[in-house]
Design a protein that fits this description.
Arc Repressor Mutant, subunit A; 4 strands; two-stranded parallel ribbon; globular; single chain; DNA-binding; two-stranded antiparallel ribbon; mainly alpha
Length: about 110
DNA sequence: TTGCTGACCGACG
DNA sequence: CCGTCGGCCAGCA
Protein backbone atom coordinates (compact mmCIF):
# COMPACT_ATOMS: atom_id res chain seq x y z
CA UNK A 1 0.00 0.00 0.00
CA UNK A 2 1.81 3.05 -1.16
CA UNK A 3 0.82 6.33 0.34
CA UNK A 4 -0.92 8.62 -2.08
CA UNK A 5 0.16 12.16 -2.75
CA UNK A 6 -2.31 13.66 -0.32
CA UNK A 7 -1.44 11.07 2.30
CA UNK A 8 2.20 12.11 2.22
CA UNK A 9 1.27 15.77 2.39
CA UNK A 10 -0.84 15.18 5.47
CA UNK A 11 1.89 13.10 7.03
CA UNK A 12 4.47 15.85 6.66
CA UNK A 13 2.18 18.78 7.39
CA UNK A 14 0.96 17.19 10.60
CA UNK A 15 4.56 17.09 11.81
CA UNK A 16 5.18 20.81 11.50
CA UNK A 17 6.35 21.94 14.97
CA UNK A 18 4.61 24.65 16.96
CA UNK A 19 5.76 28.12 16.07
CA UNK A 20 7.25 27.02 12.78
CA UNK A 21 6.15 27.34 9.15
CA UNK A 22 7.02 25.70 5.86
CA UNK A 23 6.25 26.22 2.20
CA UNK A 24 4.13 24.29 -0.27
CA UNK A 25 7.12 23.79 -2.53
CA UNK A 26 9.27 22.42 0.29
CA UNK A 27 6.69 19.79 1.12
CA UNK A 28 6.14 18.91 -2.53
CA UNK A 29 9.85 18.54 -3.08
CA UNK A 30 10.26 16.44 0.06
CA UNK A 31 7.62 13.94 -0.94
CA UNK A 32 9.28 13.61 -4.32
CA UNK A 33 6.86 15.64 -6.38
CA UNK A 34 8.80 18.78 -7.10
CA UNK A 35 6.58 21.10 -9.11
CA UNK A 36 3.35 19.85 -7.64
CA UNK A 37 3.21 22.54 -4.99
CA UNK A 38 -0.31 23.36 -6.14
CA UNK A 39 -1.41 19.91 -5.06
CA UNK A 40 -0.10 20.59 -1.56
CA UNK A 41 -2.40 23.56 -1.33
CA UNK A 42 -5.19 21.49 -2.79
CA UNK A 43 -4.55 18.87 -0.13
CA UNK A 44 -4.95 21.57 2.50
CA UNK A 45 -8.28 22.46 0.97
CA UNK A 46 -9.32 18.86 1.35
CA UNK A 47 -8.07 18.90 4.93
CA UNK A 48 -11.53 20.14 5.87
CA UNK A 49 -12.55 16.52 5.60
CA UNK A 50 -9.78 15.45 7.98
CA UNK A 51 -9.08 15.77 11.74
CA UNK A 52 -8.04 19.27 12.85
CA UNK A 53 -4.62 17.86 13.59
CA UNK A 54 -3.46 19.32 10.33
CA UNK A 55 -1.86 22.74 10.97
CA UNK A 56 -2.55 24.11 7.51
CA UNK A 57 -2.07 27.62 8.84
CA UNK A 58 1.63 26.82 9.24
CA UNK A 59 1.96 26.33 5.50
CA UNK A 60 2.66 29.42 3.44
CA UNK A 61 4.06 30.15 0.02
CA UNK A 62 7.70 30.63 -0.91
CA UNK A 63 7.60 34.32 0.01
CA UNK A 64 6.18 33.63 3.46
CA UNK A 65 2.92 35.11 2.25
CA UNK A 66 -0.32 33.72 3.64
CA UNK A 67 -1.79 32.91 0.27
CA UNK A 68 -4.32 30.49 1.71
CA UNK A 69 -5.59 32.76 4.45
CA UNK A 70 -8.88 33.24 2.65
CA UNK A 71 -9.62 29.54 2.97
CA UNK A 72 -9.60 29.68 6.75
CA UNK A 73 -13.04 31.22 6.77
CA UNK A 74 -11.71 34.71 7.30
CA UNK A 75 -9.23 37.26 6.11
CA UNK A 76 -7.10 37.42 9.25
CA UNK A 77 -7.84 34.07 10.86
CA UNK A 78 -4.68 32.43 9.57
CA UNK A 79 -2.54 35.39 10.58
CA UNK A 80 -4.03 35.40 14.08
CA UNK A 81 -3.35 31.70 14.46
CA UNK A 82 0.31 32.22 13.57
CA UNK A 83 0.61 35.26 15.83
CA UNK A 84 -0.97 33.18 18.56
CA UNK A 85 1.96 30.77 18.19
CA UNK A 86 4.48 33.52 18.75
CA UNK A 87 5.17 34.36 15.12
CA UNK A 88 5.25 37.83 13.66
CA UNK A 89 2.79 38.44 10.86
CA UNK A 90 2.37 41.71 9.02
CA UNK A 91 0.34 42.44 5.91
CA UNK A 92 -0.50 38.73 5.55
CA UNK A 93 3.18 37.92 5.51
CA UNK A 94 5.35 36.00 8.00
CA UNK A 95 8.19 38.15 9.32
CA UNK A 96 11.57 36.51 9.91
CA UNK A 97 10.28 33.79 7.63
CA UNK A 98 13.72 32.28 7.13
CA UNK A 99 14.16 32.01 10.91
CA UNK A 100 10.93 30.14 11.55
CA UNK A 101 11.08 28.18 8.32
CA UNK A 102 10.81 24.43 8.90
CA UNK A 103 12.25 22.38 6.06
CA UNK A 104 11.15 18.71 6.17
CA UNK A 105 14.13 17.79 4.01
CA UNK A 106 16.43 19.01 6.81
CA UNK A 107 14.48 18.71 10.04
CA UNK A 108 12.80 15.46 9.13
C1' DT B 1 -14.88 9.43 -19.51
C1' DT B 2 -13.39 14.17 -20.66
C1' DG B 3 -12.25 18.57 -19.24
C1' DC B 4 -11.64 22.36 -16.06
C1' DT B 5 -9.87 24.14 -11.88
C1' DG B 6 -6.90 24.87 -7.84
C1' DA B 7 -4.03 27.62 -0.84
C1' DC B 8 2.35 27.10 -6.07
C1' DC B 9 6.85 27.60 -8.36
C1' DG B 10 10.11 28.49 -11.81
C1' DA B 11 11.20 29.88 -16.45
C1' DC B 12 10.69 32.94 -20.43
C1' DG B 13 10.00 37.28 -23.19
C1' DC C 1 9.18 44.82 -13.61
C1' DC C 2 5.17 42.37 -15.19
C1' DG C 3 2.32 39.13 -17.74
C1' DT C 4 2.02 34.44 -19.38
C1' DC C 5 2.75 29.44 -19.62
C1' DG C 6 3.88 24.70 -18.35
C1' DG C 7 4.05 21.06 -14.85
C1' DC C 8 2.40 18.40 -11.20
C1' DC C 9 -2.11 15.28 -9.08
C1' DA C 10 -6.73 14.88 -7.42
C1' DG C 11 -11.75 16.11 -7.10
C1' DC C 12 -16.00 17.21 -9.35
C1' DA C 13 -19.89 18.11 -13.00
Amino acid sequence: MEKGFFQKVYDVASQIPYGRVTSYGAIASYIGSHGSARMVGWAMNSSKNLPQNLPAHRVVNRNGLLTGKQHFGGNDVMAQLLISEGLKVEDSKVLYFEKVFWDPAIEL
